[in-house]
Amino acid sequence: MSYHNLDKKRTGILFFDMLNVYFRGADEASQRLMEPIVANCVRIMNAGRKANIPIFYAKADHRPDYIDCFTQVADTDIHGTPWPDPAHPQRFMPPPTQGSWTGEVIDELKPQSGDYIIAKHRWSAFHQTHLELSLRTRRIDTIVLAGGSTEIGIASTVYSARDSDYNLVIITDACISPNKDCHDIFMKRIFPRVARMRTTDQVIGMMG
Dihedral sign, CA of 182, 188, 194, 199? Predict the structure, then answer.
């Protein structure tokens, strides 16, 4: 493993929840804020394809009746606001469902034949999915990670990858969260302990 470069034969790119429901289903103001994230992910995808680096898409995937979802008892909603009725918390938003527009990867990053689709049912892209098996069979030991949300699915996947002995490169300008304070804490204080933090330009340079 080289600190400054990526071994293209041992690297995989993982886009996390780059889905219509979060990007194209959001309000116009939120979409404008997310456009730079989309643009950077597209640059990474194109550079990865040019370098023949395998591309993985982790995407939430739930039954239309949501019976496979679980609402935990917690103090606050996704924005840190206490529930009006803590005994009956509500879901943050209807999660993406199987076969629906909401659950599809945005057109700008549309998967191609040979890419990996990782249908997940909880926050981590590793939890009870075939991600690790697919990485192992390609002899991949380094994951380049982008997407959102930073403190939710990205963080959960980072911890799972770390505990499974993968090296991580997190693209700082290709990850997003609706909570900037949480995003900044993870990017500046937490993730650097387990990953290399790099911009889109730097990661493209590392691909050679």
Answer: positive
